[in-house]
Structures are given as structure tokens and as C-alpha cells.
Amino acid sequence: MLVRYRGGEGMLAWAFHRISGIAIFAFVVLHVVDIFLVGVAPGVYDTLLSFYATPIGILMEWLLGAAVLYHALNGLRIVVMDFWPRLSRYHRGLWRLDWILFILIGIPVTIVIGRQFFRALGWIPA
Amino acid sequence: MSVQRSVSSGRVKPSSGGFELAVWYLMRLSGLALFVLVLSHYLILHVLYDPAEQDASWIATLRWSSTFWRVYDWSMLMLVLLHGFMGMRIVVSDYLGGSGRRFALTALSILGIALFLMGTFVVITLPNVVPKA
Q1: Which residue among A13, A25, A69 sits closest to B9, beta carbon to beta carbon?
Q2: Cβ–Cβ below 8 Å for B111 and A69
Q3: Comparing A119-123, B10-14, B22-26, B32-36, which segment has the lowest mean pLDDT?
Q4: What number is the ipTM of this complex?
Q5: What is the fold, at CATH topology level, of the domain defined by A9-121?
Q6: pTM (2 d.p.)
Q7: Does domain B13-125 have CATH number 1.20.1300.10?
Q8: In this complex, is the C-beta atom of A26 within 8 Å of any C-beta atom belonging to chain B?
Q9: CB burial class (10 A; 0-12, 13-18, 19+) of residue A75?
Q10: Which of A10, A11, A68 is facing B42, going by the closest CB pair?
């Protein structure tokens, strides 16, 4: 069902966009509920926050960041090509540019969140 | 049209105009705004600051002691709900038909309204606690 394309970058870009979009939507539902709890049940929010701060929570936070970054960069590529169709002829270059930016932004973010992860595991001092 | 679709991997611009065309533009414009708002949000709260420190009192005394950040977060919420709801509407319509689609779209609408109310309620009513010196 997910794969309706003829293959190539366009299909992969579309499939990743859809998967990351659904994942982000699911997190947004959770995130609005947890911020709502800050107002009505701060103790419950703090309990949930202590799960977010576990190694599994931090891993999910990192994956969320990757999904958001991909969705943002690929979305920008879609906007560029839809608003300036003449740039579509460079679609392979834009697709590569997306991944270069993804890696360049992803590395420093991974280092910072990686530190949080190893602190939570107790491998490096808090 | 089919050429553009396979190349851009975005939805084909509806040629019918009207509501679907408005949604097509709104999706892209809200996406551009969210590009800035959401990436800044993640950068500030997950990279520059450690989320482990962001408990309920941190939000009440620091983050939301500023009207700017309340307005920022509420604007982001409205755009996320609009963009996310329109996106999920497309996903649901691609995979479900008939009564399944109607049920899923109704559930999505109720969820969207509930999240709108919950988010708006907390951003307005959370007491503005002045941090102790």
C-alpha cells in the first residue's frame, strides 16, 4: 500500500515523508496531552518526564528529531519544486542536498543527545 | 501532472480549485512556518537545554513566564494541528474508503478539536509563577 510509485528517489522521499509525518503526528498528540498535564496534574507530568529522561526515552527523542528534520527538509524540497516547477529538473540534486543537510545538522545534534543518553545510562558522570 | 508528481513527491496541485486547492497551499505555507518554528523549538529545548530539567515548575517559572514563548508555543500548536490534521486526512483518504474513512475522519476531527482545546486551555490558564530570586 505504501509503495505506489515507480521507484527511484521520488518514491523513497514520499514513503519517508509519510512515515515520518504519521510518527510526528502521534508524538504531537502525546506532547499536547503531556503539556496539558502541566496545568491540571503537574505531578503526573513530572512522572512522564522521568520516563522521557530514561535511555529509551532519549533514544525516542533522537528518533523524533530525525523524523522532524527529514520531514522539514523534504517538505522544503517539495515546496521549492511545487512553487518553482522549473527547479524540478534539479530534483536529484535537491534530494542529495537534503541528505547532506540532514547529516550536517544531525551530527552535532547526535553528539549533544548522545551525551544525554550516556549520562542517563550512567556511563559518563552527570 | 503525472510527471510533476513523480518528480516532486508532493501532492499534485489540484486543478479543480476551491477547497482542495486552498488545502494544497495551506499545507505548504504552514509547512514553511513550521520549518522555522519546530526546528527552533527542538534546537532550543532538546539541544541547547537538557529536557531532563524541564519539569512542570521549570515550565511555570521559566519557560512560560514569558508571554512571547506562550504566544510562540500556541502559534506553533495551531499550525501543527492544521498541518497534521490536513496531512492525516490525506493519509486516511488514501488507505480507507466508505464507512472506515468516515469513521477515521470523524475520530481525527474530534481528536483535533480536543487537542486544540487542551493546548489553548493550558497556555492561557497556567499560572504565571514568578521565579524566586
Answers
A1: A13
A2: no
A3: B10-14
A4: 0.89
A5: 3 helical TM bundles of succinate and fumarate reductases (1.20.1300)
A6: 0.90
A7: yes
A8: no
A9: buried
A10: A68
